């Protein structure tokens, strides 16, 4: 549509007022590299895994790791297995009626997955693995920033895929609404998630630095440059404890999803909440003691 069509008609008696234009692309928006056209979801999902893993390795080199390498890889393997299973299970439970009708459709059963399901079942599988091998040390702090960044990058692919990705929002007349190709302006919930995660990453970095200051097993390099106190000194009034960087990521992201999914046309299975939202509620309840500890910290140390 040429820009001249975006202007309002010249004022006259009972003249109609044209609505503002809404952002529109040809979805899915394929990425072209020479003669090759790559689907955006495949490209950005692959890119998210690569960058997230590189960031994890960089943080591990910079901050060190209180977990021995063999145990660390055992935990990562458990997380990957649980995430792969949970991403599918929660996708099937997201719309139980639709899943029942497509129970014998391999394309439907294999095709979809959810980030929340991957996080929830990845968490549960890691906790089971830690109990099995007798590991009591918190293992998730180094994952918080890579997860946030990886999800943000992956959501770019979700946005550029359009309607077939099923991550779009409900119709809206807001000026930043996006027409994903069906002529209906919708909430670009994928972009909301990207902006939220990018804003969360600096906060996670600050919390990770504070957590490192309490763990003497992390890299001595940080202590040499003045970030860490001596190994025998632990700030008694610190709000954050080992494991809190990952917990904060989970609490922040799942709280965001709980609210943001009201802007998505997902089926409500019970009490006005969808399956993904109920998963968010359960994990937030699981972390309720940590949330209370963060909120009541200042009162306890006045």
Q: Short description, anyone?
A:
With 302 residues, the protein is mainly α. It contains eleven helices and five strands, in the order E-E-E-H-H-H-H-H-H-E-E-H-H-H-H-H. The chain has one domain (36-212, 242-300).
Provide keyphrases for this structure.
302 residues, two-stranded antiparallel sheet, 11 helices, 4% strand, globular, disordered N terminus
Folded structure, characterized:
The protein is mainly alpha-helical and 302 residues long. The chain has one domain (36-212, 242-300). Helices cover 56% and strands 4% of the residues. The protein contains 11 helices and 5 strands; from the N terminus they run E-E-E-H-H-H-H-H-H-E-E-H-H-H-H-H. Strand 4 (178-179) and strand 5 form a beta hairpin. It is globular and about 55 Å long.
């Amino acid at each position: 549509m040429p820009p001249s069509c975006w202007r309002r008609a010249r004022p006259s008696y009972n003249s109609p007022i044209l609505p503002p234009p809404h952002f529109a692309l040809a979805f899915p928006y394929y990425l072209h590299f020479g003669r090759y056209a790559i689907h955006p979801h495949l490209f950005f999902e692959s890119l998210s895994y690569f960058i997230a893993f590189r960031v994890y390795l960089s943080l591990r080199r910079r901050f060190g790791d209180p977990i021995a390498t063999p145990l660390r890889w055992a935990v990562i393997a458990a997380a990957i297995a649980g995430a792969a299973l949970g991403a599918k299970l929660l996708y099937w439970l997201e719309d139980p009626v639709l899943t029942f009708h497509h129970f014998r459709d391999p394309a439907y059963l294999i095709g979809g997955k959810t980030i929340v399901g991957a996080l929830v079942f990845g968490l549960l599988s890691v906790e089971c693995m830690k109990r099995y091998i007798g590991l009591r040390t918190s293992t998730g702090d180094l994952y918080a920033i890579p997860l946030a960044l990886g999800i943000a990058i992956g959501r770019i692919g979700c946005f550029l895929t359009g309607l077939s990705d099923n991550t779009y929002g409900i119709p809206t007349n807001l000026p930043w609404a996006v027409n994903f190709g069906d002529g209906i302006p919708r909430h670009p919930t994928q972009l909301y998630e990207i902006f939220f995660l990018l804003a969360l990453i600096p906060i996670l970095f600050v919390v990770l630095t504070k957590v490192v200051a309490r763990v003497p097993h992390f890299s001595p390099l940080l202590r040499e440059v003045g970030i860490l106190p001596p190994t025998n000194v632990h700030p008694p009034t610190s709000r954050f404890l080992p494991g809190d960087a990952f917990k904060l990521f989970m609490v922040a992201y799942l709280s965001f999803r709980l609210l943001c999914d009201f802007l998505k046309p997902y089926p409500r299975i019970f009490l006005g909440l969808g399956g993904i939202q109920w998963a968010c509620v359960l994990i937030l309840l699981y972390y309720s003691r940590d949330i209370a500890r963060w909120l009541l910290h200042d009162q306890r140390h006045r």
